[in-house]
DUF2795 domain-containing protein (Polymorphospora rubra), 62 residues
Amino acid sequence: MTADLSAARPYLKGLDFPASRQAMIRHALRNGADRPVLDLLRTLPDTDYKTSGEFTDLPDRP
């Protein structure tokens, strides 16, 4: 099963942006994200994201 980036959004609720990829992964993990969502977040470019929309607007990940 794969996840799309919009599936990560509920697990990032309450996260203060800007946030790094690693901060998003930690926050999603604390909020009970499943493995497909965590794996997908790990494929994101390693940068700081200003808003949650900034990463959900990226092209779909493999």
Observations:
- DSSP finds three helices and two strands in the chain.
- Residues 5-56 form one domain.
